[in-house]
Task: structure prediction
Amino acid sequence: MRPPPSTRSPRLRRGFTLIELMVALVVFDVALLAYAADGALLVRLRQRAEQRDASVALAESRLERLRAAGCPAAAIGDSLVAPGIHESWRVTETASGASGPLRAVQDSVAFGTLAAPAAVVLRTSIAC
Result:
């Protein structure tokens, strides 16, 4: 014969209470929301890194083209490469070095959004 439910040992009770299940669901939901927020942040950071890498490649390309031209004349240039990417470059004459006259070259590529602008600036000297 079975003892009445009120006299049973607590060890025989199986399963979770409704309150325990609700607390577990809330903890699980908070963890999921944190994971989703981190995922969105990682996507934005990846896009920003890709923009920076493309901007550095663009500036390096301009500097290499000017270097390949030999002794570039003093000049200033400006262009809108793509929506949100603006490049400006400048070649100036500087004092002569040991190997002859020098040209200072600077290329600046601005990218990003209005809320989070960024720029890459590369500088070099070209001996003539």
Q: What stands out?
A: The first strand starts at residue 75 and ends at 82. Residues 18-68 form the longest helix (51 residues). The CA atoms of residues 59 and 107 lie 6 Å apart.
